[in-house]
Amino acid sequence: FALYADADAANSDMMIAGLWQTGIGLPDRDYYFADDEFIEKIRAGYLTMITTYANMLGLDNASERMQAVYNFEKQLAEIMNTRAENRDPQAIYNKTDLEGLKKNAPNFDWDTFFTNVGLEVKDINISQPKYFSQVGNIIKSTDKNVVKDYLKTLLIRGNASYLTTEYSNVAFDYYGKILSGTLEQRPLWKR
Q: d(Cα 185, Cα 191) in Å, to the nearest integer?
């Protein structure tokens, strides 16, 4: 998930911390569920990319491990709002205090989280309450090794362009070619 700061939608003179659903590698939650040949190619390309990264890291049983990561992401996608739901400003404005957050999402250690990010929270907007009420359960019920592999792929996906040329090329093969239809990667100095 993402933690951000924004103007309070009910009082634009005030800033408020907010929580937003994130954590999936495909462009949208619906990509995990659509029954479409084009989307299937995108899903297969994504699985190939994260499996390639796992092989580059030297992980044993990379294919099986990345399938487990994909399945974990699919569980996250199931509890996410759709794009249409996220366009409704009233639906994504759910201001509460820290105690309200703990009540809505009890299976996550919010005190430790906010201490570690160095934030003292008075009020917070939970943009997708359904997601936050269930994400802790999914994390707790998932094998910790799968969660660790997921975090590795998350780190690599987010930083591939800053790593070696090999990592950058794998990212381009998926994000550039498969998702965007770009045939050739721009020179390093133009990226």
A: 9
